[in-house]
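#lab-general

N.A. 3:47 PM
ok so I finally got the sequence cleaned up, no stray characters, all 180 residues accounted for. can someone with queue access submit it? mine expired

B.Y. 3:52 PM
send it over

N.A. 3:53 PM
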Amino acid sequence: MSLRKCPDCGQDVSSAAIACPHCGRPNRRSSSPVELSGILVIAVVCAGVLIWRLSSQHPAPAEPARAISPETAIAQPAGNGAGLAATVGYNRKLVLFRVQNADPYAWTHCQLSINAQGISAGYTRDVETIRPGITEAALLAGAEFVDGDGRKFDPATQEAATLDVACETPNGQRSYRGRF
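B.Y. 4:20 PM
back already:
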């Protein structure tokens, strides 16, 4: 214990005193480290109980979560590098194909085919021109593609697995095949 001056009356007061014996001013003592650590332990215990209580209210799901395929798939090129430089995306939710020309020249007289195999043309659609650049990409609805019998592509019964693009270029006929 030490003596210190009272800020109000200036008399000597013991640091252990609750108040100044001369004027009655309360003696403010800082909290001891033991008191602070006790408060901290109580707070940690309360937080642990709260977390345990909240986590026990939500039972684990009865069946494991199923993986949902992303809405938009980007086609992976499935051919040699001598064809069209294209980036093709397919939005499954909107049933919309996006074909971007990455060549420095326009493609003309293009025929696009969904799920073409061998001599089967699959579902086709003709596009007169696809200009180069991101903002010039062709947006094509899946319902615009038809097979040889005039049936439209139906994503409810079929999945788009491939998209083929064949166009005229300044370098002759070029093509692109992408797999989703």
